[in-house]
Amino acid sequence: MDTKQQSLLRKLPGVDHVLELWDKTKPVEHVPRAVLVQSIRTTLDRLRTRILAGDELLNETMFGDNQLLNLAAQTVNKSMEFNLKRVINATGVVVHTNLGRSLLPESVARNVAEISSRYSNLEFDLEIGARGSRYSSVADILCEISGAEAAMVVNNNAGAVFLSLETLAKGKEVIVSRGELVEIGGSFRIPEVMARSGARLVEVGTTNRTHMSDYEGAIRDETALLLKVHTSNYSMVGFTAEVPLKDLVALGAKYHLPVMKDLGSGSFVDFSKYGLIKEPTVQETVATGADVVTFSGDKMLGGPQAGIIVGRKDALERIKKNPVNRALRIDKMTLAALEATLHLYRDESKAVSAIPTLRMLTLPPKLIANKAKRLRNRLKKQGDDRLEAVIIDASSRVGGGALPLQELPTRCVGVRIKGFSANRIERIMREAAPPIIGRIENDLFVMDMRTVQDEEIAMIASTFKKILPEE
Ligand SMILES: *Cc1c(COP(=O)(O)O)cnc(C)c1O
To answer: Which label site among 176, 323, 448, 461 has the fewest CB atoms less than 10 Å from its CB?
Structure first.
């Protein structure tokens, strides 16, 4: 340790000293004592760590009473904030799992607030005045939209898959194509979920090609289920073959075996009408006659996190009765959000314009270009020539492990600031209130305007204004 470090360490006061200063001036009101003491301790610990690390930027003037109080106030303010906060998604990834996947339409969010802050008929049948089913609020409309005989919902699609396998195939065999043994986002892997459910996986076919005869040859007394998994997040091209779901349903009928399809990001809207790659909709999947179809509520559906199970009455009755169901129970806030989202689907054009995920996926390039221009112009108008903003053509992504090959032409705004590295801009934006999440490309901080909401344009511009130091 050199003499500068030693003298800085001597300057560093104890917690009690800063506490005393605080009590005299109270820079932040209404701070619980425990939070205050902890924040002061954290502030001093951080300074000590920086001194010991030989941080060149430290000097004695930073250890004055006012400076220390300021630092402590920053730490206090930080710890009084919520950890979970809204952010501005400028990544262009529409269904961004790390940023909360889907945003609920305002009308849906209002319904969640209303239902969750009041008593409700969550499990009470108002017609007969007795206990009712938790799913009754969404089951009928799910059947109406999907064409299925029966429907239920659980916490998420991973839960829906697990519960279905546990109910229909525990202790027995499930036949799946080798090409469909997928991993979804780190921890959800079909073979592992299968193992946990107590079902035995029987892989058939090869990685790139699976035929009807492969499935049929694997059927035996122990077989309980034929499963197809949508390979959401990857795509096979070239010399490939898979058995269409409707053929597998016919095979199931021949051997009296139920057939299940995990759709992953199920959608009620045929996005090919809007120029996207064709994916089977929930309705088309149900129409094949599959016994069980599972999908997420918050991927391409654009609703709350939920696992939706639709299909044949007998299979669904068994799944509903499984005691494991209780552990995966959907809560009332989710139900309130899901019901309100599903109502929007009664009119497809309304769904596409009102549900943010759908709106962003189908956003006309002209409107994205317009948002980019508005942001660039606002930044220019701020009149600081250290900041340079350019418009860049790029491609957004669907995200959520859906449509991995889909190109979504978009416009981005790239920002460069004299005296700031792109890394530094990225960090400042990420730590702003609200945080702005973009990416770095060719030394520019790049914001994809597809996922930036209209009212966020002004927020981004004012954040840039704030970070530029007065000249
Ligand atoms: C995303 C996905 C899941 C998991 O769904 P969650 O709603 O994230 O639990 C399961 N299967 C497939 C094919 C998926 O794409």
So the answer is: 323
